[in-house]
Write a structure and sequence with these properties.
Length: about 70
């Protein structure tokens, strides 16, 4: 279980669009970890596809993750 949580965290870090050349903060990663694995698991390891998936599922995302996606241009 700990490995899957770590994998989801790393996935989210790679998945969110970069804003001003910076990666997502730890708080942003935590906000989207569950949503990324729930709605976009098939895109693990494919950051462009993960970004698109999160944007496409924005209406289904938790409030905290939706705010992250929106703040990063999604």
């Amino acid at each position: 279980m700990k490995i899957s949580v770590l994998a989801a965290l790393l996935l989210t870090a790679a998945a969110l669009p970069a804003a001003a050349q910076s990666g997502p903060s730890v708080q942003e990663q935590m906000a989207c970890r569950g949503d990324a694995s729930k709605f976009c698991a098939e895109h693990i390891g494919k950051p462009p596809q993960m970004n698109a998936c999160l944007r496409e599922n924005k209406s289904k995302l938790s409030d905290s993750c939706r705010k992250v996606v929106e703040s990063r241009g999604g």
